Amino acid sequence: MSLVTEVVVPRYGIAWYPWAVQYFFLIALSYSSLWVAAPGIILGRQRWLATSRLALLACVSTTLVAPVALLADLHQPLRFWHFYAHPTPWSWMSLGSFLLPLHLVATVLLAWLAWRPALKARAQADDGWFSRIAGWIAWGDWQVSRRVMILAGLAALATSVGMMVYTGAEVAIVKGRPLWHTAWLPFMFVATGIIGVCGLILLLNRVSGIRSADTNRQMLAILVGACVAAGFIALTWLLDGANAVYGSVAAALDSIDQSAAWRSTAVEGGIAGVLLAVLAFMARRGPARRKLFGWALGLLALHVAWMFRWVVLMNVQTVARNSAGFHDYHVAFGSYGLTGIIGIFGLWLTALLVIELFVPWRDASLDPERDAPADTSAAPAPSASVSPATQGVRHG
């Protein structure tokens, strides 16, 4: 006699929607762009000035928009206050709820200090409401020392490191998903985040009209290094799972071993990464190539960074946890799908346009002491050859 035991397993819907992809993408661009801006802001390197201006613009815009995507992913955005009313220090998500506001405030404060001299200069120009608003944003005529700027930059860098650790650990700590529960994932988040921010700065360098040759050269050099690092992490990740019998990486590879869709995704991702690295290496070897292909490489780099997060956060959820096989997921048109993705992108463009309208970020020297007004007490005395009558006419 044979006995058949029927097991009924409920099918659960996905927990994280494309809002999560947008958040992890934008926050990676946020902390990575702050690192790229650091040489010009903190170290004061003049050859890095144009790059730091663009990186600071990218950092502020992405930092402002990222929390919106996170709130939308809560499904009930107004419940965010629960994180503060009921803190759980052992949860990475709870820690992130405190780190994110600190990072937002530190980043905006740093940008405000860096842009204040240019805002004060615009406030003195006859530019109607734009000058008036620039004066309001500058908030007085007091001077900021270089030391204060460095301290603000170091504080922002500290919060950016916290954001890097929290966003990586928040996903890697989930034991129920072998494809997430690995130490390699946080490092891959960082590498692809740097790839994405290099692409974003290359793109902003083109569309903003700055078109700095130094920026193209610097970003392509970092892009090549980030692609090599990402390739090394991916190869080590694969070898770890292929050579191990137990462990999360081995379980992850076993869970997708029979999926043709996952194999095609891996091949497409590998081709895109290798193509990006090769083209970036070739472009950085000549100024003409950097100028011609910089914007196209920027788009490809953003695609690689965004698609990696889509595969990790969305495709992984299609792997059944309590049964065999895969669940189908199709991007809906509503706010939890395509409309939400386009909406967040539009909100980021809005943030860029608002900054472009009211902040003369192109004129910022990122050194407040260099923009200090000249000391009029040391002005030379009037020439003795000028007659008193002439002096009277000159001074009205």
Automatic annotation (TrEMBL):
Keyword Membrane on entry: yes
Domain of life: Bacteria
Coiled-coil residues: none
Subcellular location: Cell membrane
Membrane-spanning segments: 20-42, 54-72, 92-115, 148-167, 187-207, 219-239, 259-280, 292-313, 333-355
Keyword annotations of the record: Cell membrane, Membrane, Transmembrane, Transmembrane helix
Chief site of localization: membrane
Keyword Transmembrane helix: yes
Listed Low complexity bias regions: 374-390
Lipid bilayer topology: Multi-pass membrane protein
Pfam families (alphabetical): NrfD
Family membership noted in the UniProt record: Belongs to the NrfD family.
Name of the molecule in the record: Polysulfide reductase NrfD
Species this protein is from: Halomonas piscis
